[in-house]
Amino acid sequence: MRCPWQGRRIPLSWLLLSRQPVRLLVALAGISFAGILMFMQLGFRDGLFDASVTVHRKFDADLVLISPRSASSVRMAGFPRRRLVQTLADPAVSGISPVHWGLMLWRNPESRRNRAILVLGFEPEDPFFVDPELSAKTDVLKQKGRILFDQLSRPEFGPIAEWYRDGRTVETEIAGNRVRVEGLVSLGTSFGADGNLLTSTETFLDLMPQKAPGSIEVGLIRLQPEADPETVLKRLQDRLPDDVMVLTKQGFIDFEQNYWKSSTAIGFIFTLGAAMGFVVGCVIVYQVLYTDVSDHLPEYATLMAMGYRLSHLLGVVLREGLYLAALGYLPAYLAGEGLYWFVRDATRLPVGMDVTRALTVLAMILVMCLMSALLAMRRLVDADPAEIF
Q1: N-terminal to C-terminal alpha carbon distance within the chain
Q2: Can you give the pTM of this predicted structure?
Q3: How confident is the model over 84-94, as pLDDT tens digits?
Q4: From CA 234, how far away is CA 115, in angstroms rounded?
Q5: Average pLDDT for 112-136
Q6: Is 67 within 8 Å of 243 (Cβ atoms)?
Q7: Sign of CA dihedral 41, 46, 52, 58
Q8: Fewest Cβ atoms closer than 10 Å to its Cβ: which of 84, 135, 151, 242?
Q9: What is the pLDDT of residues 186-217, one digit of tens each?
Q10: Where are the alpha helices (DSSP H) in the chain?
Q11: Taking a C-beta distance cutoff of 8 angstroms, is the pair 127, 97 a contact?
């Protein structure tokens, strides 16, 4: 008669880990801490780079015209508006939108302090944003001196969104000129701008009278549905003078992100922080597994004397590493979600969990635990049953 337990495998790895619950919890806390550190460092890095192009992504454009002298969104140079008009000669171009782009001083209506804010000026009747809800709000800009305020701007600009929602008339000064808030939009802060506002070309030029009316900073180009952006881009580059540069919309986004990646140490710093979390996790897991193997050397020696092969016992240690990785990742993921929400609420930065980062951290924790298990195996390989007994 076959016993019910025959054929069942003993979960030796789990029994060894759970034999001392306190040590297991400490190990999981250490792994989770390392995972949270990696989540936060990578999340900050990606969030900051994504924040630099929140406005860029919303533009209704297939191609973008900028000056070759432009370095980033905070250092945009002007170019003749007629260059944008010249692109209409191409049969693949269906429409254009000239954009004025500049930083101005916004006066906080509550504290009366000035702070730089990014101002975008465009013709309200032109297609400007992909989001139809945003585009529907631009009609109010046809009246001179009216603006749309970004409600995701930093609170240092004043309680503009709260006052507007309460029905109050919100007026303040920009560069010494009186303006009125006629609506709210949601764009988001970035590296170069703590806040944004939208206005018409007419109001923009009133706020910045020293600017030449025939000069713009960005030209949005929309193509016919069947047109290939790359083909039209090459054609426009050949036809237009060298005082303008043609980019695809994705190229415009890359242009901005590459500036911040190459001109700041942000990418290196946060990647180094994630690497430090990886190293800390390796040390913690190695200490746990090394101690576990050392404590159970007599049992391992007994199993070897009974005929168990060394490869089988090494597999036990390896499975311990896998258990630790799986159990340590889950609380790190949940804590990461919570901390992302907290950071997003406090800073207005687009920091959030995505599949790529979740899988990246999972892979790092797996490698961290398996590497530590491989190092801890040396204690088992060096063990001699004859010496132990």
Answers
A1: 38
A2: 0.69
A3: 999 999 999 99
A4: 40
A5: 86
A6: yes
A7: negative
A8: 242
A9: 888 776 788 899 999 999 999 988 888 789 99
A10: 12-18, 21-51, 54-58, 81-86, 132-136, 160-165, 201-207, 229-239, 249-263, 266-295, 297-305, 310-347, 355-381, 385-388
A11: yes
